[in-house]
Amino acid sequence: MGSERVLFVDHTGQIGGAELILLDVVAGRENSSAFLFEDGPLAKALVERKLKLIISKWGSGLSQFRRDSKWLAAAPLVGRLAAIVEEIALASRSHDVVYANSQKAFVLAAIASVFARRPLIWHLHDIISPEHFGAMQRRMQVMLANARATKVIVPSQAAASAFIAAGGKRGLIEIVPNGLALPPEPRTAAELRQSLGLPQGPLVGVFSRLAAWKGQHVLLEALTGLPEVGCIVVGDALFGEQAYAAELKQMVLARGLADRVRFLGHRGDVPKLMKAVDVMVHPSIDPEPFGRTLVEAMLAGVPVIATNAGAAPDILEGGRAGTLVPPNDAKALAHAIASVLSRPESLDGQLAYASLRAKARYSVTQMLEAIGLVIRKLQAGAAA
Ligand code: UDP
Ligand code: GLC
After folding, report:
1. Does 231 map to a domain?
2. Quick one: 172 and 261 in the same domain?
3. Domain range holding 139?
4. Which protein residue's CA is at the shortest distance from atom 25 of ligand 1?
5. Are residues 135 and 56 in the same domain?
6. Does ligand 2 have an atom closer than 6 angstroms to the CB of 125?
7. Closest residue (by CA) to atom 10 of ligand 1?
8. Which listed residue, of 2, 145, 180, 209, carries a Cα 20 to 30 Å from 232's Cα?
9. pLDDT tens track for 122-158
10. Is residue 250 located within the same domain as residue 204?
11. How far is the CA of 95 from the centre of ligand 1 (A)?
């Protein structure tokens, strides 16, 4: 499967949710290559999947550049960005299709496509909304997409709507929901807690990289009103959010939460940790483009409390497959946590429904078939 020669482009060497999707997409595509702006764990994982790897000579550190970074500091970067464009254009020439897996990768791949014309897929894992991007960035992304992208794959209707609202052409969009699978885990929550060294009392967990918009601080705030409840914070700052990570740790000390909140850092055993908690909290304060952890919790049979924005209300079917709370509202979140913890048996029906829904709508097979079809069509169109 996957004989097409695809050049996959990503700006980061770290493995966030978008890169976990990429790792599924590239499996079995041994005629393909990956172009990364920088080295890192993603590079190693791509080589393990037998892709030819190209690492930019100029891209190191760009993944830490955020929307609130000072643009003046970026001025000397312009030459580097031009050099990366040239590298992508050169690499594109020996491939049939270019597949940009991040916003920064797309911008440079779109410019490169002017010099090396290849069908260009943008797998857009972001919500192009004012909460996430400044006006200039939104305009540039959409202008480049409309001019250069052959297809824009998005993981949710929410991401599609934001793209169109920002001026993106509706006809470019292909909605392909993310697909997830979890390894079977027969142990009970109590057994898992014991093996993981976690406390046995009421326990909630949050499983996202540490970033202000992911809203871990709102969960910590909610915990101040729930003195019996422990919490694991799983994940680390992957994309330049170290100051926020430090603030969270400071907040735990300042609010007297240190004996109840444990920071576990970035982990490779999320499915186990997830099955060990009583509730998975997804507190993003800005609209979530998809949210893999929502589906992971549904598959693990763990109650979900998520903020009612972005793709979450769709994934949780308006609250039938989980509990929805307003974003950035610690009181409402505390109330929802207390309510879920106080009546676990009454959630059995919701959990069974959530698991069926996750398996039916968010399977890896469906995702790979849909993306494979997009790639094949573009390759065939280019060859014709
Ligand atoms: N994840 C992980 N280790 C961690 C924290 C998160 O492997 O310590 C995984 C998590 O299980 C999920 C992904 O990272 O599969 C995050 O994807 P999501 O779509 O939830 O959010 P993103 O970080 O991509 O915005
Ligand atoms: C991004 C989004 C997340 C999504 C992931 C995979 O990182 O923030 O919501 O699940 O990509 O599409």
Report:
1. yes
2. no
3. 6-179+363-383
4. 17
5. yes
6. yes
7. 293
8. 180
9. 999 999 999 999 999 999 999 999 999 999 999 999 9
10. yes
11. 30
